[in-house]
Amino acid sequence: MRHRRSLILAVLLGLLVPLIAACGGGTPAAAPTAAPAAGATAAPAPVAGGGGTMEVEPNAVLRVTSWGDAAEQKINTDSFARFNALYPNVKIEYQPQASDYQTKLKADAAGNTLADVFYLDSGLMTAFGPENILLDLTPGLQAGGVTLDSYAPALLQLFQRDGKTYGLPKDFNPLVLFINNEKAQAAGVDPTSITTWEAWRDAATKMTTGEGNSKVFGMCMQADAQRFGALMLQQGINIVDGKTVNFTDPKAIEAVNFWYSFYKDGHGQLPKELGADWCGQAFGEGKVGMTLEGGWMVPYLAKDFNDVQYTALALPTPPNGDRSSLLFTNAWAASAKTAYPKAAAALVLFLTSPENQRPILDVGFALPTHNTVLKDPAAQSNPTTKVLLQAAEYGKVSDIAFGGAAKDDVLKALNTNVEAAFLGQAELSKALETAQAEAQAALNK
């Protein structure tokens, strides 16, 4: 479910009006595009944010695809219009794929009908990266005068392989702690004081009140590695280090035990046991005082629970630990077989440039990945947005943290066994040992 990224990509931060004001300034596959006519001259055009110019093939026609609902598609068509203001001779044929996106693109790649430019997620990067399917954007970056350090390094790494860059991150989201201000006040807790694991546990204890159906729990819990994994990172270990799984590292066990303690000690509850579909709903309905979620909470709460006042904080840190978070990201990329590699690279560079990311942020669509926008003081003037944006400086992309190509197997091993512990079917340390063995076997394939 892309960790509720459909919510992010559709409307993330869409109702942060102060921020917006502060920022200011399955479709059928078409036939492959034809190569440019021999002897044709290339048309130079400026690359926004690159400080230079790029040449693109004259009369280029680029087929572009993405996932996304109507709102997201509108964001993209607006972006293409901005691109065409700079590159009027490049025609864009937009063919969004609302469902079965990965399946469709893999089939297109196998049939040599892959779009020229497209969204790239970690699964497609794993499938396409080793197979020479993706266009190396290095020449395009050089032609446009854009350096790799223009983007948050943690977000860029996922789309690099063997010294080549195959995608540029288009947006991201981290995990942060959301605290219900009213429930914190009633419990005598200052939300801004929840900066350590000890303070976090203490707050959850104090915010757990009532009995029966009216009971409020301090924390909303999930037996999900893409929640408690962030705590493992805070302990200074690599969850997966190359071909080695570290679930049974003492620091990893300590992190998962801390997470589990909210549930075991009665100060945290699973959403399904609260009659909620997910932790955001439980938080909005006032059934929990805190939850560990991402920026997708902002538009969700504003739309469905706009009376809930909350504070968003970076994850509290353990003793002798470090700040960390899990980051989720996707990229724009291009096909290595495009007939118009210069135009395709120019489009990818523009779509991820400050000139395009700023208006997208202004309309509340997504968190930016370009440092010029990420570090803009105006963008960080909203406290919640500031916390979200700053996580790009210290977080780690989830796909990398959980083993890259083996991510799905690693997550399955962790989630299945830790959930068994939550359900009382296994002791937690034994569950982690089993998860370690299963994930290690997957990595050793």
By DSSP, the count of extended strands is 17
Name the CATH homologous superfamily of the largest domain. Periplasmic binding protein-like II
Amount of helix: 40-55%
- Averaged pLDDT: 88
CATH class call of the largest domain: Alpha Beta
- The radius of gyration is 23 Å
- Cα distance spanning the termini: 26 Å
What does this structure look like?
This protein has 445 residues and is an alpha/beta fold. It has two domains: 2-172 and 328-382, D-Maltodextrin-Binding Protein, domain 2 (3-Layer(aba) Sandwich), CATH 3.40.190.10; 176-324 and 403-443, Periplasmic binding protein-like II (D-Maltodextrin-Binding Protein, domain 2, 3-Layer(aba) Sandwich). The protein is 41% helix and 16% strand. It contains 20 helices and 17 strands. It has helices at residues 5-11, 17-23, 70-86, 101-110, 122-128, 138-144, 153-156, 181-186, 197-206, 225-234, 250-264, 279-284, 297-304, 341-351, 354-362, 371-374, 383-390, 398-401, 407-422, 428-443, and strands spanning 43-46, 53-56, 61-65, 91-94, 117-120, 160-161, 164-165, 167-174, 176-180, 217-220, 240-241, 244-245, 268-269, 288-293, 310-313, 326-334, 396-397. Strands 3, 4, 5, 8, 16 and 17 form a six-stranded mixed sheet that branches. Strands 13-10-14-9-15 form a five-stranded mixed sheet. A hairpin with a 6-residue loop joins strand 1 (43-46) and strand 2. Helix 10 (225-234) crosses helix 11 (250-264) and helix 19 runs antiparallel to helix 20. The chain is globular. The two termini are 26 Å apart.
